[in-house]
Design goal:
The complex is a heterodimer of chains A (260) and B (670). In chain A, 23% of the residues lie in helices and 31% in strands. Chain A is an alpha+beta fold and 260 residues long. The N terminus and C terminus of chain B are likely disordered. Chain B has two domains: 225 residues, no CATH class; 293 residues, Alpha-Beta Horseshoe (pyruvate-formate lyase- activating enzyme), CATH 3.80.30.20. Chain B has 670 residues and is an alpha/beta fold. The chains are: A alpha+beta (260), B alpha/beta (670).
Amino acid sequence: MSKQTKNRPPDRDLAPTIQKLRLRYAKRGRLRFSSHRDFQRALERALRRADIPMAYSAGFNPHPKISYSNSAPTGVASEAEYVEIGVTAMCDPDKVRRELDEALPPGLDIVEVVVAHGSDFAHRLEASLWKAEIVAPRGEVESAVAAVLASPEITVERLTKAGKRSFDARAGIIQFTLIDGETGAQTDQNADGCVILHMVVRHITPSVRPDDVLAALKQVGGLVPQKPVRVTRLAQGPLALLDEVNYTVGDPFDLDRVSA
Amino acid sequence: MTSQALDHRLRGESVFSELEMLLPFVGKPIQYVGGELNAVTKEWNDADVHWALMYPDAYEVGAPNQGVQILYEVLNEQNRVLAERTYAVWPDLETLMRENGVPQFTVDAHRSVGDFDLLGLSFSTELGYTNMLTALDLAGIPLHADQRDEHPIVIAGGHAAFNPEPISQFIDAAVLGDGEEAVLLITEIVRTWILAGRPGGREGVLLELAKTGCIYVPRFYDVEYLADGRIQRVVPNRPDVPWRITKFTLMDLDAWPYPKAPLVPLAETVHERMSVEIFRGCTRGCRFCQAGMITRPVRERSITGIADMVENGLCKTGFEEVGLLSLSSADHSEIADVARNLADRYEKTQTSLSLPSTRVDAFNVDLANELSRNGRRSGLTFAPEGGSERIRRVINKLVSEEDLIRTVTTAYSAGWRNVKLYFMCGLPTETDEDVLQIATMAREVIRAGRIASGRRDIKCTVSIGGFVPKPHTPFQWAAQLDHESTDSRLRKLKEAIRDDREFGKAIGIRYHDGKPGIVEGLLSRGDRRVGNVIESAWRNGARFDGWSEHFSYDRWMESAEHGLDGTGVDVDWFTIREREYTEVLPWNHLDSGLDAEWLWEDWQDALSEVAVDDCRWTPCFDCGVCDQLDTEIQVGPTGVVDLPMPMPRQSQVLISEVSHADGINETASQ
């Protein structure tokens, strides 16, 4: 029988963190209905399955060293979610990407892994580019967009754990662009009768989520889509001006790659 | 239910695009999308036989269920056989599905359940019956088996299926016992029937199933009643159909190491761990325990088989916790070696091992200490079940007060801070005094614990369940305690604990009121007449009856009044009435392997407060199971004492060839 030590965490191999890796992952298809907590559990299990040499916190209940950035809401797909992990051995980022992606269910996909440089990562995520697939006549979407942009302030309500909360959704909205399919050519509607709207939204507090933007489009623009709007986060990162009028959301890994 | 929108759907075609439109409006949509790690989807047209497997409760309860996971894998391993899973949908989605004509679907390929050849339901508890009716209705399958045509064959299994009479009008067949070989037998009969062009139609295949003697087809049996409402007899109404139906018993667990690839749900579930079944059956002989009675004899998995399943499962799932499951895990004949070897293997990892511990002895604490060597501790639970020594003799739970005190003393001095104790209320012959002794016992536990640990902050949680007499147990003849008396006893116990100045604050108490137990009792020991009550309750809105926020006692009682109208019997007749030796019980024609004489004698022993030993270690008491199977209880050490460490898994992601993890180098150099 092993000796029990009272009130002190037992000795484990607590190897130090010697490398930090940043992961970009996508939440696709039916797995867009996974919540952030669902993803956390899936990732922790995948890290074990893939034999990633994770660093653990000390204490009675050691946790793997993982930090999550602002995650897309349940039901919203994403091509650009970010996570940072601490490992106890020097790892090849490409191998980590491959093994971890293999260990996750299809639909939770690891897109890219880089070695972390700098500790300012959260600050790099200034804004998101969201794609909304809206089943409504193009004209209605256009006029709703114009109405939102013309309003200095749009108070929307959201149900939170603390009850109903009101805040200004307009403050986060930077830019709307109507897109035809993936080609970017402008037409009235695509084959599905679906208007594709790109939305650049700044990360502010309280956060303005895509459903808040859709609520604003409904509230001041009268936009009521015929089907639930499917939303995908295409990018999140630093906000930059593309030209004099158009904004773009940059790649937050640029700085890691430059330093590597 | 058919819908305009889905009418021209091909058989086996996915309904996901319709369902997807509803998911943004329901709670926890992830539970409906499937996509779990290790889930299997097959092409519809590549299979001759299509099974939908249902656990009739919410996904969070159903997904971890071992029975369904095992059958899912066993069936999908077969050539040209397809199995998918379906669970009960919550009322928010049910409403939207009805409004939009979306049928009951499987979570694997989102096929309509009505398209399948077979719908297998696993009933761990009778409280899932109304959820079955919701699923049948949403699937477009007529509720009554005699109105079905080219619909799936609906088969019930699981422990509740040992008395399927209350649901006999809704199911086509029931299977008793272990499912692994049963589903394969059914598959072959159904496959032959399908490939032959379905000779004899629906009745033709049901007759083939019934003729095996181990699949119960209720429609081939007539129940006749006496004037006073008791059953006169149950008779086959076909020449080829046997009088009694025997249960399935899987003899060699090592030959069936399932699940080999456990499912890893994305949604949070009630068991966030992997389970390895270390043996099946139990011979402790607790008289209240249906599981212990109907799963005899004991069949152990070998130490090597257990260790292989643990290691393989961890590799395939990435789970952090492994539960070693059985009805009384400390009773495995090699459990000490199993615990030591597994603890050695996983000591340096973050993997935690747990043994659902119910046996009250110090050895159990030793095992728990061993398994938590790496610091990961789950709770420590003991089940004395009865508060007084007398009632424990009645229920045959051979635990003395000294046993318990010695056990908890060991636990508290080994550093455990909180010990959980399970009890039951409403046991046969029980008095207020028997229940009040739970408070005395808990007090003694805390007193001993404070001395042993030298601390005052130790705790003990007392959980109390209401006793429900179950078929195929010595208590099948017993009167259930009415809910008013149950509640009154529990109130007195609560007051006794609350009023205890010295120890009361260290004792937590958890219990439910007695009303749900009465409904469970009605469904457990009911006969075919109870079917109308279930249907009526369901039509009145009964769903998720195992969930207190959905359960309504009043709805059930109103439905019972309506459903039993004209039968001359009522809820009290089924629940709080004691049965005589001569009474024909609704499940008498269903053979659990137990000898009826033995059960009756054991019931008489209970009333005389005579306890019997576990026949694993003492001479046989002639329960009848082994004789019928022409076997003997297979226990005893395999002789394997030490297991080799598993092959170290070499991380594939490192830059250099030399590993930085010490553990890996160490093992590799051995």
